[in-house]
Design goal:
Length: about 45
């Protein structure tokens, strides 16, 4: 989930889409992934 969020955040292999990145990071954070929660908090 974190990798999908990163792909959408940076536009790697997909069109850049910050709301979609936020959604994937949130899914990871909801499952207890601390890195996903960190990226979610720092998402611009």
């Amino acid at each position: 989930m974190i990798y999908l969020g990163f792909m959408y955040q940076c536009g790697d292999y997909v069109q850049k889409n910050i709301p979609m990145a936020r959604e994937w990071y949130q899914k990871g954070a909801d499952l207890g992934d601390k890195a996903a929660a960190h990226y979610l908090l720092n998402l611009k």
